Amino acid sequence: MIALAITMLGLTGSSDAAAPKSNVPLQVETRFSQQFAEAMDVRWEEGTNFFKATFEDWGRTLFAFYADNGDLMGVAANLSSPTLPERLQAQIKRSYAGYWITDLFGYHNQDEKGFVVTLENADKVVILKAVGEGGWNVYKTSAKS
User: Fold this and answer.
1) By the 8 A CB rule, do 140 and 19 touch?
2) Distance (Å, whole) CA 64 – CA 72
3) Structure pTM?
4) Rounded (10°) CA dihedral 109, 40, 8, 78
5) DSSP state, residue 126
6) Share of the chain above pLDDT 90, in %
7) What is the pLDDT of residues 24-39, one digit of tens each?
8) Sign of torsion over alpha carbons 87, 99, 113, 35
9) Alpha carbons 50 and 36: distance in angstroms, whole number
10) pLDDT value of residue 14
11) Please, are residues 53 and 44 in contact by the beta-carbon 8 Å criterion?
12) 95-112 average pLDDT score
């Protein structure tokens, strides 16, 4: 599920084109309206076998991911580093002192709740994942070209 969420945010986050409302299945729209009745400024994007709703709810921008059949796959929200639990902040400062945060989001789905952070330095990009506050695990590392 985490890999799917990271992939979905990465694939859809760089696209400015929202899927026309007519492409979103009725069962997806209905379920979204039931689960996020207070949502405002809803924008839909279509991915491969999922739909992403970007919307405002209680002053926050949220991302909800739905399967074609209307099942909610997960919800994510961009975060700022001070909102991370202190233990997770300390681990980043200690282990990745020469890196800066380029992306940070919190997520939750049916199975778990956690955080994903992208760190960069001049040579590398590192993506870390933490389930709950249990500590960071390396999800992916790549060299910059």
Assistant:
1) no
2) 7
3) 0.74
4) -80
5) E
6) 74
7) 999 999 999 999 999 9
8) positive
9) 18
10) 40
11) yes
12) 94
Distance CA 89, CA 102 (A): 14
Residue 108 to residue 114: CA distance in whole angstroms: 6
The ranges of the chain annotated as CATH 3.10.450.360 are: 2-77
| Topology (CATH level 3) of domain 2-77 | Nuclear Transport Factor 2; Chain: A, (3.10.450)
Distance CA 27, CA 43 (A): 16
**Lowest model confidence (mean pLDDT) among 9-23, 74-88, 110-124:** 9-23
Indicate the CATH number for domain 81-143: 3.10.450
**Which of the 8 DSSP states describes residue 48?**
T
Helix (H) or strand (E) holding 84: none
